[in-house]
Design brief:
alpha/beta; 15 strands; TIM Barrel; 8 helices; 3-stranded antiparallel β-sheet; 270 residues
C-alpha cells in the first residue's frame, strides 16, 4: 500500500524545524519549555512564509546516536511535535537522528504527524555515527504493527554525511527503496547539509521511478529552486531559511516566490 504525501501543492516545500539541544545531549542548557517555544515559533514562521509542511528534527543534538534514540530525546520530541502540530495547519513530519526511524514512526503516530524521514532505508552506509544498516524491514513491519499506514515514509538514497558501503547506482537504490522497501517517497541530497544535489543523480532517480515523489534533500536556495523543482516533486529546506537558530520569513517567501510559476494545486487535503 502506498501512502500519499499530504501536500496541497506540487512542487512542495518542507521547511525544517531544527530543535534542541534536547535533554541528554552535550549542548543542552535551556529549559525544555524554551526549546518547545522556539520550535513552535519557527514552525509558525515557516507556515506564514508559505511552506507546505514542516519536518521536526533534533538537529542540535550532535553527536548523534546510531539507530536508537535516548528516551529523553523521544519524550522531548513527542512534546515538541505535539505542540507544533497544534500551532500550524500544514502537515508535520519527524526525523530522529541518526536513522532512529522506529522512534520517529512512534512519535508521528502518537502525535498525529503525517510523515517521517529515514536516512538509511535500503542500503548500508558509512557515516560519522558508524555503519548505518537499512531499516526497511523493521520499519515497515512496525508501521503495520501500529496500524500507522497513514504515516508516509520518506527514504534517503545515498544520504548526506555518509557514503554507501558498496558503490551502487543511485537510481537502482531508489528503485529498490520503492519496490522492495515500500518507501512512499525518495530523497536525493548532496554530500552534506547545505550542499547542492547532483542534477544528473536527480534526473536518473526521477526517470527510474517517475510515478513516485522524488524530493531534493539539501542545497535548495531561492536562486536554484526553480531549476531543481522543475525536475523534482518537492524539496526539504533548512539551512537557507535560517538566521542563526531562527527562521527568516523573508527568506521563506523569497524561495516560495521563485517557484510560484511551477506550483499546481493537487487537491490533496491537508
Amino acid at each position: 500500500m502506498v501512502t500519499e504525501l499530504p501536500f496541497r501543492f506540487k512542487p512542495f516545500i518542507v521547511g525544517m524545524v531544527h530543535v534542541g539541544p534536547l535533554p541528554g545531549s552535550p549542548a543542552f542548557r535551556d529549559d525544555v519549555n524554551v526549546i518547545i517555544d522556539e520550535a513552535v515559533e519557527n514552525a509558525v514562521a515557516l507556515e506564514e512564509g508559505g511552506v507546505d509542511g514542516v519536518l521536526v528534527e533534533n538537529f542540535y543534538d550532535a553527536p548523534y546516536p546510531s539507530e536508537r534514540a535516548d528516551p529523553a530525546t523521544i519524550a522531548s520530541l513527542a512534546l515538541i511535535v505535539r505542540e507544533v502540530k497544534k500551532a500550524v495547519s500544514i502537515p508535520v513530519g519527524v526525523n530522529v537522528l541518526r536513522n532512529c526511524c522506529l522512534e520517529a514512526m512512534a512519535i508521528a503516530h502518537v502525535c498525529g504527524a503525517s510523515y517521517i524521514r529515514v536516512n538509511a532505508f535500503s542500503e548500508v552506509v558509512v557515516s560519522d555515527q558508524g555503519v548505518l544498516k537499512p531499516r526497511a524491514y523493521d520499519l515497515m513491519r512496525y508501521r503495520g504493527y501500529l496500524r500507522a499506514e497513514h504515516v508516509a515514509v520518506l527514504a534517503d538514497v545515498h544520504v548526506k554525511h555518509a557514503a554507501p558501503l558498496v558503490a551502487r547506482p543511485i537510481e537502482l537504490v531508489a528503485l529498490e527503496a520503492v519496490e522492495r522497501g515500500l518507501a512512499d517517497a525518495v530523497i536525493v541530497s548532496g554530500e552534506a547539509t547545505g550542499f547542492e544535489v547532483n542534477i544528473k543523480d536527480l534526473i536518473k532517480v526521477k526517470n527510474t521511478i517517475p510515478k513516485v515523489p522524488v524530493i531534493v534533500g539539501s542545497g535548495v536556495i531561492a536562486e536554484n529552486a526553480a531549476r531543481y523543482l522543475s525536475l523534482a516533486d518537492g524539496a526539504i529546506v533548512g539551512t537557507y531559511f535560517k538566521k542563526g537558530r531562527r527562521v527568516s520569513r523573508e527568506r521563506v517567501r523569497k524561495l516560495i516566490d521563485s517557484i510560484m510559476h511551477l506550483r499546481k494545486e493537487t487537491g490533496t487535503s491537508t
